[in-house]
Amino acid sequence: MTEISTWMRSFVAVADAGSFSAAAMRLEASQSTISKHVAALELHLRSRLMQRTTRSLILTDEGATFYESARLALAAIEEAEAAVGRVSEARGILRITAPLSLVEGRLMPILSRFLTENPGIEIDVKLSDHALNLIADNLDLAVRIGQLSDTRLVARRIGTARRVAVASPAYLDARGRPRHPNDLMAHNCIGYSLNSSGQQWTFGDNISVAISGTMRADSPNALRAAVLADIGIAVNAIWLFERELAEGLLETVLPDYAPQPMPISIILPSVRHVAARTRVLVEYLTNAFAADPLLALD
Known about the structure:
about 20% strand
């Protein structure tokens, strides 16, 4: 790297890590060296990039603006070096977002194997069932479940979320077991409020049923808690209820009418300057999802 790109790399590492000492550990350099790099960069740019106190480090407005450009520039340098074989392994921090239930149920073991095989990479996971803004939230990629409403997104479908309808034995004993999707209209159905079709469930060969009930939730884990509390019937990804179904705490409702599955996609903020570490993770997740029967594409 040139001198300026070395300074930039130190600056980005400090901004990412939140301190000079943590950045020094990540870059395997001394804290004084990292501090000198940032000071040299500020002198070169004639701007204060960071406000430093004994307890905190905050980017100035100029620093925040430069940080975004520096990340793109460093990613472009990394990509160019990789293209001619000068980088032997992907390195750096990957900031990703994914739904909590997917991370807990299927994704974390995959990420564990990925980190073991790619020791130069660190992963910062932001768990959210909401669709975060990749640019505003400074994210490298998102894993999302469901149809994508924004056609401007750079998306790659990598899997399928197979779903199931479930309820507790106590609820079904009290209210009866549905035999056809239309029977759900007589049941207390727990809606998922983040799903645009949360008040309508579709089964099998396009059998759609308008559902109603006394509870809705914006978290899959809350849906699971609700069915375990005998409140009603819920529909979500199979992995959310795997353990409870195996232990008999929940039952599959309408086993002959599977709810329509949902696509799982990787979202990137831009097609330009995609860092090597991001490309490596995208390919790793694509292959891992293909090998998982609960995640593989149709």
